[in-house]
Design a protein that fits this description.
Helix content is 74%, strand content 0%. By secondary structure, it is mostly helical.
Length: 175
């Protein structure tokens, strides 16, 4: 069996299991799980990729949450109009996220961007999620930082597991 075929089968089984679990656990986001899984393979699909994916994704979630809190907490939205204020704060958040790549721990810019984008996807598409109360709560299904970060980490771990299972299935070609 080819490596691609084995990976496809393993990813299919793990993706099906992840979907069934996420549909039964409020706060687990299947789309974020798949983003974390894809980020793992995009980052190289090895032990280092697991670390870079988890750190980058979670860092992106944290930056996005801070950005959202600043947008909601600082009253400049009244002076500048919300779209302009939000654009300024998001722009500054993007600068911070990319410049953080100067620190080796945060060097995976794509992983950081995935975490940032996934957090804002949750905040802008989930009714009533974009509130200071939800952003600062410890509610797993209502707090974007918690829900998205946990889902992304689960996805990265599933990617790691998929890679390991695939490697066990695929036998090296005889030399």
């Amino acid at each position: 069996m080819s490596q691609l075929t084995a990976l496809a089968l393993v990813a299919g089984v793990l993706g099906g299991i992840a979907t069934a679990v996420s549909l039964n656990v409020p706060g687990l986001l299947i789309w974020a799980i798949f983003i974390g899984l894809a980020c793992f393979f995009h980052s190289g699909g090895d032990n280092n990729a697991l670390k870079n994916t988890i750190v980058g994704n979670v860092f992106g979630c944290v930056v996005a949450t801070v950005v959202a809190l600043v947008i909601l907490s600082v009253p400049l939205a009244d002076t500048l109009t919300l779209p302009i204020w939000a654009g300024i704060v998001v722009g500054i958040g993007c600068v911070v996220a990319v410049l953080a790549a100067n620190v080796p721990t945060f060097a995976s810019i794509p992983a950081t961007v995935y975490g940032f984008a996934a957090t804002f996807a949750f905040l802008l598409q989930t009714p009533d999620a974009l509130t200071i109360a939800n952003l600062t709560s410890l509610n797993f299904s209502g707090n974007a930082l918690i829900s998205v970060a946990v889902s992304l980490v689960i996805g990265a771990v599933l990617g790691y597991v998929a890679g390991k299972i695939t490697a066990m299935i695929v036998k090296p070609a005889p030399a």
